[in-house]
Every structure is written in structure tokens, then in C-alpha cells.
């Protein structure tokens, strides 16, 4: 005997194998009761494999392109390799937790394993919502030993270290890399916000850059570079620049005609992995492990990553006593308290104090580095670091009140320095390269960046 079963398309299927008409009718009554309670499960739904369900799941997914690319990578490389051929109704929570334990034992970071299991849980929650399975089998563990995770401190840099790393990056790949690093450290902007920054959003006469909430960030999705919104809704903001950085960016922009502020020496958009390999890692870590590098550079801030410049900026603001609200506004962080978020504003005098503090850090760091000797170089054993000189930027202007908060600026201030035409030869931003050549008794005398 068979019992009729309602299908999602409005028709009916059957369940066979009943030994009597009464048994079939009882099953039909049970199904109808489950339907009335909203507890009916499609008997064929649980037969779908996780790989089959992932196709439907991705079709309905509505997230940013970068997020979807990350999800696809994790599902393809981790989840489907283990669970792709498993039926939805054959996945058990215990088996998933055992698998997660094995991933950790194989050397995967705890954060990565947590992300993978949360992603798989999301897929199964949606399967349960579609009544393919009764419940999500992945539930938090309430027993077992407590994992004491070792918290790894983020590496941040002092202003002197930032200038040292930037100077070495300049001789490795070009001045543009140093300007990018310095801008990151003195604005707190993210990688994508700076690599996506365009001339039209760089208002140097006003002393600001604008992080557009719609097209400010450069994203790399499946190997393609495209402009899109920054990380969060709060990331769209206006960042006030200290005076030295206005001069630095003005000189930098005069060196090329690309619509993006930061590009390679060949005028190409920046890719994070290439920049890390060619500039960030050797400039911060040194290249003592290489036998005959083109240029010998020394460790200054080992382990520092590009995001570490943003972390450094935050650390400086805290040390300078800048209020939390002003920090959040500048960094594009969300203010947790909703009322405080609505009514919080940065007073002009706070903005001026913030800019003064950043300018002071620059001049102090520049003075320290340009008067250093090998015996006091703070570069973890480095024997030499280049002097970084920027004309007209070594001393702060006597009056910084010309750079008030963008929200209260009545009118753009007069240009503090004349625009340097790109038609005229420009002096190098960096003089005396920040590294020692690998050739004996020879020191590079000019910048040679690729």
C-alpha cells in the first residue's frame, strides 16, 4: 500500500511499503497533522546531497561579491571535499565537531575552523527553514575541555618605524609605495580605501580625502579588480589630513596622471598579494635570508602587515588622548551606543588637536631619523636607515586652525603651498635610499623602482 504525500509544486507523491490500508491511512493522517503544525518535511528533501543543496543555496545568496567569493572558496576547498556527497539527513552534529577537531589538529587556525563550521551551519539552517531537514544538526558544544587560545598581539609601529619601513619600500619598488604606507599610517584608512582612492575624492586645497560610501574601495574578486562600497556603512567618511601629508600627496599626484591616487610605477592598480610580496614584507622584515638580493634591506618592524598601519594610527590616537568618538569617526568605526551615534559630533577644537598631534608625530619622527647614527637605529639590529626629507614639511605651520572639522568648515582655506606642475622636473621625495646595496663598497645613489 502507498500513502499520498503533498509535494512543493502542489502535486502529490507517494510513500510505499505499507502492509495494510490502515497503516497507509495513519501515515496520511500524520502527514496532514504535520502540515497543520508547520512541521511537515519533504521526504525527498533530506536525500539531497550537500553539494546539490549548495547550488540552490548560492543561487539565493545575497551578499557582497567579496563575501561570496570567500564563501565559495571555503565551501569548495573544505566543506564539499568532506561532506559534498553526504545526504542532508545524514549529517550529524557529532561528526561535524569531530571533523572540526581534525581540522585544528591538521594546523588550521581556530578562526578559520570556526568560520568553516559557521558557514556549514548557515547552509543547514537554511535547509531546515526550507523543511528539507527537521533541524540544523550543528549545535554548540556544551562539554569538553576549554580551549585556551593564545592571543597573538597585533604588530603596530611607531612613527619612526613607519618612516623606516616606508623608506625601504621606496628603494624596493618606488616612491609611491612609501607615500601609500605613510598615508595609511597617518589617516588610518584601509588598504581597499586607499587603493580605491581617486583624484576626484582627494581635495588637497581643503585638506581632506573623501571615502565614498558607494565606490570608495578597490575589491579583488576572483582575480578581477573592481570598485565597490567600503567595508561597513560607517566607513564612508571624510578624513582630514595633517599639513605635511597634503604636501606629500600633492607632490605624489604631480608624478602621474592616473585617475587613482595610488598605482604602481607602471600605472597599474594595486593588488594586495603583489604589494605584500614585493614591498611590505621585505620592507618590514628585511631580506637577510636572501643570499644576493638586488638591494639589501633590514628588519625594522618584523611581522607588520599593511593593516598594522591602521592599528598603529588607532594606537597613536589613544596615546594622544583623542576622544573615542573622534577616533571612531576618523577610522570609520561603528559607535555601539545608538543615541551616542546620533548625537555625537567632533568639535572643531578636537579635530585641530588631532591634526596637531599627527603633525607633531611626523616632525618628531623625521627629526629622529635624520639625526640617527648606526648605534641608535631602532630597527632591531639594522645598521643603517635612510634619511627621509620632504621640503617644506619638516616643521608644522604656526597656525593649524586653518584645518577645522570638515563638518564645520565655512569655506575652503587658501592653498597653503603652490601646486607643482607635472611638466617640470620633480625632486625625489626620498633622498639617500633606505637600504645598503648587496655590492661591496657601493651605495645606491638614485631610486630605481619597478
Protein model, in words:
This protein is mainly alpha-helical. The protein folds into three domains: 2-40; 47-129, Tyrosine recombinase, N-terminal domain (DNA polymerase, domain 1, Orthogonal Bundle); 159-437, Orthogonal Bundle (hpI Integrase, Chain A), CATH 1.10.443. It contains 14 helices and nine strands. The strands form four sheets. A three-stranded antiparallel beta sheet has the order 3-4-7. Strands 1-2 form a two-stranded antiparallel ribbon. A hairpin with a 5-residue loop joins strand 1 and strand 2. Helix 6 (159-173) packs across helix 10 (272-285) and helix 6 packs across helix 14. The longest helix has 23 residues, at 348-370. It starts with a strand and ends in a 13-residue tail after the last strand. Residues 6-12 and 373-450 have low confidence and may be disordered.
Domain count: 3
CATH superfamily grouping of the largest domain: Intergrase catalytic core
Helical segment tally? 14
- pLDDT < 50 runs, ≥5 residues: 6-12, 373-450
Radius of gyration, in angstroms, nearest whole number = 29 Å
DSSP summary, beta strand count: 9
Strand content: 5-15%
Shape category: elongated
CATH architecture of the largest domain: Orthogonal Bundle
What is the chain-wise order of helices and strands?
Answer: EEHHHHHHHHEEEEEHHEHHHHE
Could you describe the largest sheet, including whether it forms a barrel? 3 strands, antiparallel
Instruction: Kindly report the CATH topology of the largest domain.
Output: hpI Integrase, Chain A
- Please give the share of residues in helix: 40-55%
- Give me the oligomer status: single chain
Mean pLDDT: 76
Give the CATH class of the largest domain: Mainly Alpha
The chain-level structural class is mainly alpha
Give the strand line-up of the largest sheet: 3-4-7
N-to-C terminal Cα separation, in Å? 78 Å
Biased composition (Polar residues): 435-450
Domain Tyr recombinase: 152-356
Protein name: Integrase
GO biological process, one term: DNA integration
Amino acid at each position: 500500500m502507498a500513502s499520498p504525500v503533498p509535494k512543493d509544486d502542489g502535486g502529490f507523491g507517494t510513500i510505499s511499503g505499507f502492509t495494510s490500508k490502515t497503516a497507509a491511512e495513519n501515515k496520511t493522517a500524520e502527514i496532514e497533522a504535520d502540515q497543520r503544525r508547520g512541521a511537515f518535511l519533504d521526504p525527498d528533501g533530506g536525500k539531497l546531497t550537500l553539494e546539490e543543496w549548495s547550488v540552490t543555496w548560492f543561487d539565493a545568496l545575497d551578499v557582497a561579491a567579496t563575501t561570496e567569493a570567500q564563501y565559495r572558496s571555503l565551501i569548495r576547498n573544505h566543506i564539499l571535499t568532506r561532506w559534498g556527497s553526504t545526504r542532508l539527513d545524514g549529517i550529524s552534529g557529532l561528526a561535524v565537531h569531530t571533523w572540526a577537531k581534525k581540522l585544528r589538529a591538521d594546523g588550521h587556525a581556530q578562526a578559520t575552523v570556526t568560520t568553516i563550521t559557521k558557514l556549514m551551519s548557515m547552509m543547514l539552517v537554511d535547509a531546515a527553514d526550507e523543511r528539507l531537514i527537521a533541524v540544523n544538526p550543528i549545535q554548540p558544544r556544551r562539554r569538553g575541555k576549554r580551549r585556551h587560545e593564545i592571543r597573538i598581539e597585533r604588530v603596530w609601529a611607531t612613527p619612526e618605524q613607519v618612516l623606516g619601513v616606508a623608506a625601504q619600500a621606496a628603494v624596493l619598488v618606488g616612491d609611491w609605495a612609501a607615500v601609500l604606507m605613510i598615508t595609511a599610517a597617518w589617516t588610518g584608512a584601509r588598504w581597499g580605501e586607499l587603493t580605491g582612492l581617486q583624484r576626484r575624492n582627494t581635495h588637497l586645497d581643503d585638506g581632506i580625502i573623501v571615502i565614498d560610501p558607494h565606490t570608495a574601495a578597490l575589491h579583488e574578486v576572483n582575480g578581477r579588480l573592481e570598485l565597490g562600497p567600503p567595508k561597513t556603512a560607517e566607513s564612508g567618511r571624510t578624513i582630514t589630513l595633517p599639513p605635511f601629508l597634503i604636501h606629500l600627496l600633492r607632490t605624489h599626484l604631480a608624478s602621474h596622471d592616473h585617475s587613482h591616487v595610488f598605482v604602481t610605477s607602471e600605472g597599474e592598480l594595486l593588488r594586495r598579494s603583489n604589494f605584500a610580496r614585493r614591498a611590505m614584507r621585505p620592507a618590514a622584515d628585511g631580506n637577510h635570508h636572501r643570499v644576493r638580493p638586488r638591494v639589501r634591506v633590514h628588519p625594522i618592524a618584523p611581522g607588520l602587515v599593511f593593516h598594522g598601519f591602521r592599528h598603529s594610527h588607532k594606537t597613536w590616537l589613544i596615546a594622544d588622548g583623542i576622544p573615542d568618538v573622534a577616533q571612531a569617526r576618523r577610522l570609520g568605526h561603528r559607535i555601539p551606543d545608538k543615541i551616542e551615534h546620533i548625537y555625537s559630533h567632533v568639535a572643531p577644537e578636537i579635530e585641530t588637536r588631532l591634526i596637531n598631534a599627527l603633525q607633531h608625530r611626523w616632525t618628531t619622527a623625521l627629526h629622529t631619523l635624520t639625526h640617527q647614527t648606526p648605534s641608535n637605529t631602532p630597527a632591531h639590529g639594522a645598521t643603517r636607515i635612510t634619511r627621509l626629507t620632504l621640503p617644506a614639511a619638516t616643521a608644522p605651520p604656526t597656525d593649524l586652525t586653518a584645518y577645522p572639522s570638515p563638518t564645520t568648515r565655512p569655506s575652503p582655506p587658501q592653498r597653503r603651498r603652490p601646486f607643482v606642475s607635472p611638466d617640470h622636473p620633480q625632486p625625489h621625495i626620498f633622498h639617500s635610499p633606505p637600504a645598503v646595496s648587496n655590492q661591496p663598497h657601493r651605495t645606491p645613489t638614485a631610486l630605481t623602482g619597478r
